[in-house]
Sequence to fold (534 residues):
Amino acid sequence: MHRRNRLLFLLFPALALVLPQTASGQDLESLQEEVLAEVSTPELQKLSQVMVDKLFSFSELGFQEFWTLDFVTGILEREGFSVERGCAGMPTCYVGTWGSGKPVIGFMGDIDALPETSQRPGVAYRDPLIPGGPGHGEGHNSTAAVDVVAAIATKRVMERHGIQGTLKVIPGVAEELVASRNYMVTSGLFEGMDIMLSTHIGSGMSTGYGISGSGLVSTQFTFYGTSAHSAGSPWAGRSALDAAELMDIGWNFRREHLRLQQRSHSIITHGGNQPNVVPSEATVWYYFRELDYPRIKELHALGQTMAEAAAMMTGTTFTERVLGAAWPSNMSKPLAEVMQAAIQEVGMPEWTEEDQALAKAAQAMMEQDTTGLTTEVPDSLRESSQGMGGGSDDIAEVSWNVPTVRLRYSGNIPGMTGHHWSSGIAMATPIAHKGANYGSRVIAMTAIAVAVDEDLVEEAWRYHREVTTKDYTWESLVPAGTAPPIQLNADKMAVYRPMLEPMIYDETRFDTYLEQLGVTYPGLTKPAGASGGK
Ligand SMILES: [Zn+2]
Fold:
């Protein structure tokens, strides 16, 4: 207990019963109220909206988030954070740092877009801004807004009260490729970090603890054969594409005899050039997903066996390039408890009739229950479960190395399909603007609790040692020495960047991106002659 508090309690013994003690001497409740008020100012609400809209308009695919890098680091620098650009071998990675000493608190969320999900925001029908182009079909455009606004507000309150600690804002680069956090961990980026506060878009406000989701290895097999005239002398050739196809066929037969919890999917990224040339090179890209480290490794090894067998059958050879990997995530209970309390304090944004009308029209279009937007927060904390597995998120790699908690904030419409243009409909509308700002409120309240409560940090690490890592110590599923696959998506963005550039949100001329695009919000029915189909 600090001397100031001890003195206070000598004078007013009853205070000891009502005020939770913090290392900084302020009571936590009033600091949380203060940081909540800070995030809620018109200035920071505007910043939430501008960041959400700007990143939506960028629509940059994983490892190509260069406009995002410039824009976000510019904001951090203006707010007094020192910025390191490029980290863990990834040019679009950044670390924005403010403050000094312990505790070191991380803020982390994803920043990348998805292929094929370009969509006009604010309208409940299919209308790509760029047909075939990238878009925010998962809502990662809103996450940097959550993190940065929360970090700014936390910093301001810490500064005002002379609270010690270091804040670090780090992006989830290329989360859709599950291919950045492993490299960040192995490069030592999180060494010395005490707590990680992570965020992900959702259609409600929630957190949880324990193990969730599937883990995976993302890996490419490239087969090498011999080229020949496909009609003139096919016997002289050995087709690399045959090998890729036979690997897929073998895998799909074997799939029947694998655990139901496994999930695996592949695409052929290169299958030759034209039919009359026997393909001398072909690449197939697999995600092998399972529920724990030994099983992920086993599934990956089985994939390697299939590749070997396919090469033997076709007289070809192959190489493998692991791109990324993640364990299932394992979130901290002590941190989730503090976050849950903050969620209940913050509550849900107030949705307008227009917001609800868009949500219901989008749900009707997607043949979902037309329940509209979520209006309540969960009244208790839930333990996560892996169930039969599903998606993966490489924040998991952080969660096994630093006590981590994840907030799902309410910026999207329930019932939309994931990794799909429908999940982009709400993402540059007041639904996402308010959802992101409310997400920041929860993160900032949790951050200030971590900053002033040494016991919480200690308890989080005790839980990390005794529960999180009791049965497993994290090991990398990416072979040592592998470089991050930063060339991914460069070809796609070379095509789409010139189309996206004239559509970048200009906050100096337009209040919102909807205004810039001329969208009458909400757009409930498709105008005659609009492009695209459902
Ligand atoms: Zn995501």
Observations:
- The first helix runs from residue 3 to 11.
- Confidence is low (pLDDT under 50) at residues 1-19.
- The first strand starts at residue 82 and ends at 87.
- The CA atoms of residues 124 and 525 lie 7 Å apart.
